[in-house]
Design a protein that fits this description.
Layout (H helix, E strand, L loop, with lengths): L18 H20 L5 H6 L1
């Protein structure tokens, strides 16, 4: 079986967030996930009817 490999790309650095911008980003993601997890499910009425 013959496989074709792409030529090696030059090493590139990935973008990195600084501490001042990373903390608010992480905090806002955490708040969004906690808020979404505490929202009632649309099926709550069906569960309540049982």
């Amino acid at each position: 079986m013959l496989s074709v490999l792409a030529p090696p790309s030059p090493s590139r650095r990935l973008p990195v967030l600084g501490r001042r911008s990373a903390f608010p980003l992480h905090a806002s993601i955490l708040v969004a996930l906690l808020a979404a997890s505490s929202a009632p499910t649309p099926l709550y009425a069906l569960y309540q009817a049982e």
